[in-house]
Design goal:
This protein is α+β, with helices and mostly antiparallel strands and 255 residues long. It is built from nine helices and ten strands. The longest helix is centred in the middle third of the chain and has 15 residues.
Length: 255
């Protein structure tokens, strides 16, 4: 879901660190052992090789926003459980999840387009599980996403089949579910997003059907995109959900 308000639950000191981090110059990075607040540390993914990617004349970093598998995956995540925030001059994209494999994949995708990710940990409290938050700060990426509609993305960033598959993987990692490793579903309150996912699946030769809307009490109604058991094998082969691939020991390179 591309919305603000992502930082609810994070401490004040964590938000201060994020603000300072977003103002860093090229070539500077925190040590993996740098403590950002009690019980939270920056991960090795915050390290960044100077000289890549390009910077403009004012020293502002410009990420690689050309159509790619990594950019498509990021978009899929952000239209699901991810978020964007552009308040107080801080332009951020991020994801807060329990599953570390998912968080690592999102961080890797950000690195592949040149946006340096920071990982934060929120300790388990009461019935709440420990969460990993991955944040990438970049004004160009934020505005690029905000200024494009789903229709724009469908015919540009998601035009190639590989990119369409990566978008679906990110969207499924965020809003997908699986029953008995055969029945796959996407669930979302945005009907146009569900229809986009259906069109992308059709282009990949995967049969799916749209169900809904379903009543959701005081909240928005939701739609479900169902992939029957007969197409489940092709979905795993072509789209390859991150968590399943992680369990199988698979990896991914920057594309």
């Amino acid at each position: 879901m591309i919305l603000g308000g992502w930082n609810r639950g994070l401490s004040h000191s964590t938000n201060v660190i994020l603000m300072r981090w977003s103002e860093e110059r090229r070539g500077l990075h925190y040590s993996p052992r740098t403590e950002i607040c009690k019980g939270q540390r920056l991960s090795p993914s915050t390290e960044f090789k100077p000289g890549e990617p390009p910077w403009n004349k004012r020293g502002k970093f410009i990420p690689n926003l050309r159509p790619s598998v990594s950019l498509a995956y990021i978009l899929g995540v952000l239209y699901g459980d991810g978020w964007t925030s552009g308040t107080n001059g801080r332009y951020q994209v991020g994801l807060s999840v329990v599953d570390r494999v998912f968080a690592d994949e999102f961080a890797r995708a950000l690195q592949c387009i040149g946006v340096r990710p920071v990982r934060l940990k929120t300790k388990a409290r009461g019935n709440r599980q420990e969460q990993v938050t991955v944040v990438g700060c970049n004004r160009y990426l934020y505005h690029w996403i905000q200024n494009r509609t789903l229709k724009d993305l469908e015919f540009t960033a998601l035009k190639d089949l590989e990119n369409a598959s990566a978008f679906l993987r990110g969207f499924y990692d965020s809003d997908g579910s699986c029953a008995r490793e055969r029945y796959f579903n996407f669930t979302n309150t945005d009907e146009s997003l569900i229809h986009l996912a259906w069109r992308l699946l059709s282009r990949l030769g995967i049969v799916a059907r749209i169900l809904g809307p379903y009543s959701n009490g005081p909240w928005k109604p939701f739609w479900r995109l169902n992939i029957p058991a007969s197409s489940g094998g092709r979905f795993v082969e072509v789209v390859g959900p991150t968590i399943k691939r992680g369990l199988l020991g698979g990896g991914a390179s920057c594309e």
